[in-house]
Specification:
Keywords: Cell membrane, Membrane, Transmembrane, Transmembrane helix, Transport. The chain crosses the membrane at residues 33-50, 57-78, 84-104. It is found in: Cell membrane. By secondary structure, this protein is an all-alpha fold. The chain has one domain (2-103). It contains four helices and no strands. The chain has helices spanning 2-22, 29-49, 55-76, 84-103. Helix 1 runs antiparallel to helix 2 (29-49) and helix 1 (2-22) packs across helix 3. The radius of gyration is 14 Å and the shape is flat. The model has no long low-confidence stretch (mean pLDDT 94).
Length: 105
Amino acid sequence: MAWIMLLVAGVFEVVWAVAMKQSAGFTRLVPSLVTLVGMVVSFVLLAAAMRTIPLGTAYTIWTGIGAVGAFVVGVVVLGEQLNAMRVVAAVLIVCGLVMMKLSAN
């Protein structure tokens, strides 16, 4: 169950990061509220997952999901630049996440 909470926490990290971008510096109400709610949900689920999953593993996976998820949303939804170096960087992050998961007890 802790791994599912961690995965969902990572998804909410992507949600709040994208909403923050859409909030235009917290000048737009709805995206600003989505950002704040997403942050709270993400942190609460991360904290709950850390009851079982080691800190280094949980935090690394949480931030990795957020980083790669935000990258994908940026490219697919927001039309951000896609190039070979950015793809390689995202693949390396995913490789690190897999290694962290495999190393966790």
